[in-house]
Design brief:
Chain A: It holds the Pfam family Epimerase. Chain A: It comes from Actinomycetospora chibensis. Chain A: This is NAD-dependent epimerase/dehydratase family protein. The complex is a heterodimer. Chain A is an alpha/beta fold. Chain A has one domain: NAD(P)-binding Rossmann-like Domain (Rossmann fold, 3-Layer(aba) Sandwich), CATH 3.40.50. Helices cover about 45% and strands about 15% of the residues of chain A. In chain A, strands 3-2-1-4-5-6-11 form a seven-stranded parallel β-sheet, sandwiched between helices. In chain A, β5, α6 and β6 form a beta-alpha-beta unit. Chain B has two domains: about 110 residues, no CATH class; about 210 residues, Glycerol-3-phosphate (1)-acyltransferase. Helices cover about 45% and strands about 10% of the residues of chain B. Chain B contains 14 helices and nine strands. The N terminus of chain B is likely disordered. The chains are: A alpha/beta, B alpha/beta. Chains A and B meet through β12, α9 and α14 of A and α3, α5, α8, α9 and β4 of B.
Chain lengths: ~350, ~375
C-alpha cells in the first residue's frame, strides 16, 4: 500500500483551516488531486490561494458525498470542518447538524468506499471539559470529569464516538484524531480571537484560567502531516506553555471587566445578541478553569513540535491584528522614571 | 525602611547593597559565608531577606542610576558622580547604613519595574499556572509577617530537605484553616539554604472557590491527584501533601496532635513511581490558632464545605474571630525516607504502600510528641 496520498478530500474548505490545508496540499506536486468540499464557496482570496485544488459544493450531510468519494477515487479524507463558531455556521442547531450529522454521513461514505486508505479528523480539546476537579494537564487517556454539557464540546464528544466505531468497523483504515486547543493567529477568525479583540474583555470575577493556544500555521502543518503519513491514534495538539487569561488580556493591551459568576450567562447573551462574541456555555467554563493538554505524544509519536509557543502565538496575533494597547508601555516607563525622580527629591533620612 | 533583623543579617545586607553601588566592571568580592544555623536546631538566625539578595536588583539600581545620571551627550553629570562617590567612599569607611535616598530609589524602581511587568503581562507562568514573579514579590511578603512576627515559626532539620530534585514533603494538617500549609511554603522558601517553592496538592474545594482557587494556582499549587503529583515530582519540584485532608484540619480541639488516617496512601505510590524521597514534616502550633470546639453540620452542608467551625472567637466576635491566636510554631523536617531502592512497580504493591504510609505517619506522630514534650506553653514556646 503506497504511503503518499494521491487524491485528497478536505472538508470545510471555506474556512481557514480547511482552505489553507487544501492550498498547501495543492502546492505539493506529488499529490494528484485535491478536492475541497463545503456548503458555501470559499472567498475569492482563498480560491486564489487554493490554486489547482478543486472546489465541490456539496453538503456533507447529503449522501452525495459518497458519490464524490467513489467517482474521484479519493484515498485520503481530511475532515476539518468541525466548527465551534455558530455565527459562521448559521446558528447553534445548524452547527450541531453540520458537525454531527455531517460527520456521520462522511464516515458512512468512507466505510463504503474501497479507495479510502486514510482518515484524519479534526477534533478539539474541549472534549476534556473544564472543571475544578481536573488535573493540571490532560493526556490523551484522561477521562473527562464532567462531560461537556452541550454545544461544540458535546458535538466533538459525539463525533469522536462515531469515529471510534468507524475504526472498529474498518480496522484497515488508519484514523488520526487531532484534539486541537484554541487556535489563534493574525488571520484566523474564531470566537477566541474575537473575544481578545474586544476593547473591554469580560472575565469571570475571582477566576483566572490557564490558556493554551496553537498558532494557525502550526494547525495547518499538523493536518498536512497527518494527511501525508499513516499516524493512527488520538493526539493532543497545542503550543508549549500557557498564558493566564489575565496575562493574555494585558499582553493584548485590553482591559479586563470582571463579572460575578451569576451574571456571566447574562453577559454571554448580550455579547451574542450584539454579535460581538458567541461563546457557548462550555467555553464560558473554560474561562473559569482553563484547560492545558499534554503534548508529549504529539512530539514523540506524531513527530511534530509546534513552531510557536502559546506566548509567541498570542504575541503574533496581537502584532498581526495591530491591536493597539490602551496603556502605552512607554508611558509606564515614564511613570516609573517620574516616581524614581520623586523618590530622589525626597529629603534624606530613614 | 530597614526591617527588623538580627545583627548578622544587617551586616550581610549592608555588604551587598554597597556592592551594588559600585560602578560596573568592578570585580565582585568573594561571597562571605555566614553560618545559617548552629548545631542543635534553635535559636535560628534568619537568612538575609530575599529582597536584598535577589540578583536583579543590582543591575536595576545601576540602570536607574545610569538613566538619571547621564546628560544629553551621554557624559555623567555632576549629580551622578556625586551619587557614586559616597557609596564607594562608604565602603572604605565602613558606614553603618547605606545612604537613604539610594535605597528608597532602588525600592521605588523595583516596585515600578514590578508594576510594569504586571501591567504589560511580561512574566512567565508554568503549565500549572505557577507565577513565580507574583509569588516572590506579593505572596511571600504578605505571608512573611505572619510567619516571623505572629507565629514566630522555628524550623528544625532544614538540612533534611534536598536542595534540588524532586521530593515529597508529608505533613500533619491542623488549624481549621490551612495556615499550616501556607507557613510551610514560607519555611521552605526562607529557611532552607537554597530557597525552594513548595508545590502543594490541595483539595478540589480550593479550586472551585472564586479568588482562592486562582490564587492557589498562581502560588504554584495544584489539585491532589496522582497525575499532577507525578508530573511535579518528575519535574524535580518539592511537592507538599497533607494526607489527613479535611479529617485532619477540621478535627476538634480535644483531638489535637492526634494524627488522623493518612488518606489512601496515594502520596506514597506517587513517590515510589518517581523514586523521590519522602520527607516527614511535623508542625506544632497550628492546632492552637483556631481551637474548634464545635461544628455546625447543617450550615456546612448548606455552604458546601466539609465543616463549619465554632471557636471561642468565631462567630462570636464576627470578623475579629478570623484573627488566629498567636501560638508559637515549630516546623521540623524529619530524616528523608528514601524510595529509590524500590522498583517503580512497587507502587502497585498495596502492602508495601500501606507499610510505608504507616512508617511516615508513625514518624510524624512521634516527632509531634517529642516536640510537644519540649514545649512549655502553646503561646510562648
Amino acid at each position: 500500500m503506497p504511503e503518499a496520498p494521491s487524491v485528497v478530500l478536505v472538508t470545510g474548505v471555506s474556512r481557514f483551516l480547511g482552505g489553507h490545508l487544501a492550498a498547501r496540499l495543492a502546492a505539493d506536486p506529488s499529490i494528484e488531486r485535491v478536492l475541497g468540499v463545503d456548503t458555501t464557496p470559499p472567498s475569492r482570496e482563498m480560491r486564489r490561494r487554493m490554486g489547482r485544488a478543486e472546489f465541490v459544493r456539496v453538503d456533507i450531510r447529503n449522501p452525495l458525498i459518497g458519490k464524490v468519494i467513489s467517482t474521484a477515487k479519493v484515498d485520503t479524507v481530511v475532515h476539518a470542518s468541525l466548527s465551534g463558531n455558530p455565527g459562521q455556521s448559521g446558528g447553534r442547531s445548524m452547527m450541531m447538524e453540520m458537525n454531527v450529522i455531517g460527520t456521520m454521513q462522511l464516515l458512512a461514505a468512507c466505510q463504503r468506499s474501497d479507495t479510502v486508505r486514510r482518515l484524519v479528523v479534526k477534533s478539539t480539546s474541549a472534549v476534556y471539559g473544564a472543571s475544578k476537579r481536573d488535573p493540571a494537564t490532560f493526556t490523551e487517556t484522561t477521562e473527562p470529569k464532567a462531560i461537556p454539557p452541550g454545544g461544540y464540546a458535546k458535538d466533538a464528544v459525539e463525533i469522536e464516538g462515531y469515529v471510534r466505531s468507524f475504526s472498529r468497523r474498518r480496522p484497515d483504515i488508519p484514523v488520526t484524531t487531532l484534539r486541537f486547543v484554541n487556535l489563534i493567529g493574525p488571520r484566523i477568525d474564531t470566537s477566541f480571537v474575537r473575544y481578545f479583540s474586544l476593547p473591554v474583555v469580560p472575565v469571570v470575577l475571582g477566576y483566572d484560567a490557564r490558556v493554551q493556544l496553537l498558532h494557525e500555521e502550526d494547525a495547518v502543518a499538523v493536518l498536512e502531516r497527518a494527511a501525508a503519513q499513516d499516524l493512527p491514534g488520538v493526539f493532543n495538539v497545542g503550543g508549549a506553555g500557557v498564558l493566564m487569561l489575565s496575562q493574555a488580556i494585558r499582553r493584548a493591551g485590553r482591559f479586563p471587566l470582571p463579572i460575578p459568576q451569576p451574571a456571566v450567562p447574562l453577559v454571554g447573551r448580550f455579547t451574542r445578541r450584539a454579535r460581538l462574541v458567541d461563546f457557548s456555555p462550555e467555553q464560558m467554563r473554560l474561562l473559569n478553569f482553563g484547560r492545558v493538554v499534554d503534548t508529549t505524544k504529539l512530539r514523540t509519536e506524531f513527530g511534530f513540535t509546534p513552531r510557536w509557543t502559546t506566548v509567541q502565538a498570542f504575541d503574533d496575533f496581537v502584532a498581526g491584528r495591530g491591536l493597539r494597547p490602551w496603556i502605552d508601555p512607554s508611558r509606564l516607563g515614564q511613570a516609573q522614571d517620574a516616581a524614581v525622580a520623586v523618590a530622589r527629591a525626597l529629603p534624606t533620612g530613614s | 525602611m530597614t526591617p527588623h533583623h538580627t545583627l548578622s543579617d544587617h551586616e550581610l545586607s549592608d555588604h551587598q547593597l554597597s556592592d551594588h553601588e559600585r560602578p560596573r566592571g568592578d570585580v565582585m568580592p568573594e561571597a562571605r559565608v555566614i553560618p545559617l544555623r548552629q548545631d542543635g536546631g534553635r535559636p535560628r538566625p534568619r537568612p538575609a531577606p530575599r529582597r536584598a539578595s535577589r540578583p536583579g536588583i543590582g543591575s536595576l539600581t545601576e540602570r536607574t542610576a545610569a538613566a538619571r545620571g547621564l546628560d544629553g551627550d551621554g557624559r555623567p553629570t555632576e549629580e551622578a558622580v556625586d551619587a557614586v562617590e559616597p557609596a564607594t567612599g562608604g565602603e572604605l569607611a565602613a558606614l553603618p547604613a547605606p545612604s537613604g535616598p539610594t535605597e528608597l530609589e532602588a525600592r521605588v524602581a523595583e516596585v515600578g519595574e514590578f508594576l510594569q511587568r504586571r501591567l504589560t503581562g511580561r512574566y512567565a507562568v508554568d503549565d500549572f499556572g505557577f507565577d513565580r514573579d507574583l509569588t516572590e514579590n506579593v505572596v511571600m511578603p504578605l505571608l512573611r509577617p505572619l510567619y516571623e512576627k505572629w507565629f514566630r515559626v522555628e524550623t528544625i532539620g532544614t538540612e533534611n530537605v534536598p536542595t534540588s530534585g524532586g521530593a515529597l514533603l508529608v505533613a500533619n494538617h491542623s488549624g481549621t484553616l490551612p495556615l499550616d500549609a501556607l507557613m510551610t511554603t514560607v519555611a521552605t522558601h526562607d529557611d532552607l539554604p537554597v530557597p525552594r517553592y513548595l508545590r502543594m496538592l490541595a483539595a478540589d474545594l480550593v479550586f472551585g472557590l472564586p479568588g482562592v482557587g486562582a490564587a492557589a494556582r498562581k502560588a504554584g499549587h495544584t489539585l491532589a491527584c496522582n497525575a499532577d503529583a507525578e508530573a511535579l515530582l518528575s519535574a524535580g519540584e518539592l511537592v507538599g501533601v497533607w494526607p489527613e485532608g479535611f479529617k485532619g484540619i477540621g478535627k476538634d480541639f480535644a483531638d489535637r496532635y492526634k494524627l488522623q488516617r493518612f488518606g489512601r496512601g496515594g502520596f506514597v505510590s506517587a513517590a515510589l513511581r518517581c523514586g523521590v524521597p519522602i520527607i516527614p514534616c511535623s508542625i506544632v502550633g497550628a492546632e492552637e490558632i483556631y481551637p474548634k470546639i464545635a461544628d455546625l453540620g447543617p450550615i456546612a452542608r448548606l455552604l458546601g464545605v466539609p465543616y463549619f467551625p465554632i471557636t471561642p472567637t468565631w462567630p462570636l466576635l464576627g470578623p475579629l474571630g478570623l484573627v488566629p491566636l498567636p501560638s508559637k510554631w515549630y516546623i521540623e523536617f524529619g530524616e528523608p525516607i528514601h524510595t529509590d531502592s524500590y522498583d517503580p512497580s512497587a507502587a502497585d504493591d498495596p502492602m508495601l504502600v500501606f507499610n510505608l504510609t504507616d512508617q511516615v505517619r508513625e514518624n510524624i506522630q512521634q516527632t509531634l510528641y517529642r516536640l510537644l514534650a519540649g514545649r512549655r506553653n502553646a503561646f510562648l514556646g
